[in-house]
Amino acid sequence: MPVTLQDVAAAAGVSQATAARALNNYGSVSAGAKERVLKAAADLGYETNHVAQALRSGNTRTVNFLPGNIGAPFFARIAHILSGTLEEAGYVLAVSSSYEQVERERSIIESMRARMSPGLIVAPAHRDLHEHLQRLQQRGTAVVAIDRSLAERGIDSITVDNYALGADAAAHLIALGHRTLGLIYDSDDIGSTPDRVRGAAEAIRAAGGTVVAIQAGTDLEMATTRICERLALSSSEPTALIPMDALMTEATIAAIRQLDLRIRTDLSLVAVDDHSLARLLDPPLTVMAQPVDQIGEDAARLMIQRLEGERTDEVVDLRHRAELIVRGSTALRN
Amino acid sequence: MPVTLQDVAAAAGVSQATAARALNNYGSVSAGAKERVLKAAADLGYETNHVAQALRSGNTRTVNFLPGNIGAPFFARIAHILSGTLEEAGYVLAVSSSYEQVERERSIIESMRARMSPGLIVAPAHRDLHEHLQRLQQRGTAVVAIDRSLAERGIDSITVDNYALGADAAAHLIALGHRTLGLIYDSDDIGSTPDRVRGAAEAIRAAGGTVVAIQAGTDLEMATTRICERLALSSSEPTALIPMDALMTEATIAAIRQLDLRIRTDLSLVAVDDHSLARLLDPPLTVMAQPVDQIGEDAARLMIQRLEGERTDEVVDLRHRAELIVRGSTALRN
DNA sequence: CTGTTAGCGCTTTCAT
DNA sequence: ATGAAAGCGCTAACAG
């Protein structure tokens, strides 16, 4: 039913080969032939069949995006940028959530291979389990990691410098006179938080301050309870807090409220990740904002360059700096 | 280089046809042959080539999702559900943002056709310009609309009842004794807001109340300014406000703060769309929560049924009810 | 500059 | 139950 290249060629009175050359302008075609082909294609309403093209040429022009959860704001915004940039270059973006499970990551990668996807942009589910990603790359798929660097493993990576993020957050508080800082994180070995914690802790110690580490777990309610306990019991009470991700920020604010303390007056707070509502909290949150759009843009561009063979140099390891946005939740220590 | 069906067939000492039958269990294959084929496939590490399969069978098992902006929380969460549910059924989800522009919607639909995608889940960019969607459906692609119903145009739709949403929000406020309600929205003819505004307005009038319509525009700052003006000048001051989407909520809260008024005490507020931070605002926001996951789940299931031919009945028009979650931003009129 | 010829890897009649 | 053969629609050598 659909119009094929063959139909166009017949209508234009040329061979399929010539029609293909005219349509995709490569090789050489006489002006006359080209014109007739283009006209025939337009008249018949011809549309390239990308599937046939892909099978024959071995290139599906589809890039996969595999974050932990495509529904999370950080990854969703990246997906938006990725799809826009890739589309301009003629690629399509396919997405899945890995749920931070290596097993799912693996199975999705298999299905990618079956679908001949030439590129994968992934937020690796695990720091150490990445042989499947390396193997994928060795077999010829372009792989770009975001959020967690795998550059040491030979995989292009676009991340934010989480160590610096932690250090910068701490430095801000230290500059305000705080000396005992509470670092609030879910668990010891998940995602980007360990680096953030290390960065903050070292900055605090270097300034002669005291680190109060609060490992609160990954569940909102439990985390709130734990933070409450620690805040209430602590003999060396922190005067400032750094919750290391969005969930911890929620738990921390909830805890502060339960204890009837006030942000800024009783406790300074630097959160991670900006958010439209962060500005509307009372007081508005001082945050470390990750350059989300930048990461998406870079990842897409790098991917395109790798796929087009415009770039064949060593593995790229871009670390962006998070930006401190000072608003109202941090104040001089009183 | 990659292992093909041919290799497997050869290794198992059968024809390609038999190998295919064994691998995809259809037709009839003797137990012995089947076993040998399966073993050969496993030994050689055979993986189906979906592209070839798609070209030959005409089914790519790829569903496209085309929201206004995949980076927006509402759509991102839906994407997450969609990809999970579709994957279980062996489909892949491809996404793009239409930027609410019909033109982009059209061009993406073309590229879908070229890629032989059998299904589209779309948040229509426009209420009236939808012939391209109808045409797509007529040509055999399964189309499901979300967020805005196109059921009258013959396209399956899963939406929330925005009229009821507006009415329910207003009813809550009316029950609290409010009589003059401010309805805050960006513009007259964008997305789901007109229905919400109508629903709220009619509920208010039916209760003998007064509607203060505040059309604030689509830009956050400008909207804030306009809301400030209207709130300050209005001779018949509203005692409660309903901002009709997330952006309007932000603008409204900013405006209230600028005017040094207090939510709940001076003005009651019902926002649309729940949000983890809504609970952390002071006071926590009373909201109309849309059943996001439900919509995603329904859209995916319906799409699968249509694609598998398990459902061939009339056009589906599912309207979910948004849920009122009462928190602290609404109070009895004083 | 253009046509012919082979397939890409798979499914699907149609015989056997 | 199985095999042979014919493509799906396109690209890419290779001739001419």
What can you see in these coordinates?
Two copies of one chain form a homodimer. By secondary structure, chain A is an alpha/beta fold. Among the domains of chain A are: about 1-60, lambda repressor-like DNA-binding domains (434 Repressor (Amino-terminal Domain)); about 160-290, Rossmann fold. Chain A has helices spanning about 5-10, 15-25, 30-45, 50-55, 75-90, 100-115, 130-140, 160-175, 195-205, 220-235, 245-260, 290-310, and strands at about 60-65, 90-95, 120, 140-145, 155-160, 180-185, 210-215, 240-245, 270, 285-290, 315-320, 325. Chain A has a six-stranded parallel β-sheet, sandwiched between helices. In chain A, helix 11 links the parallel strand 8 (about 240-245) and strand 9. The structure holds a DNA duplex (16 and 16 nucleotides).
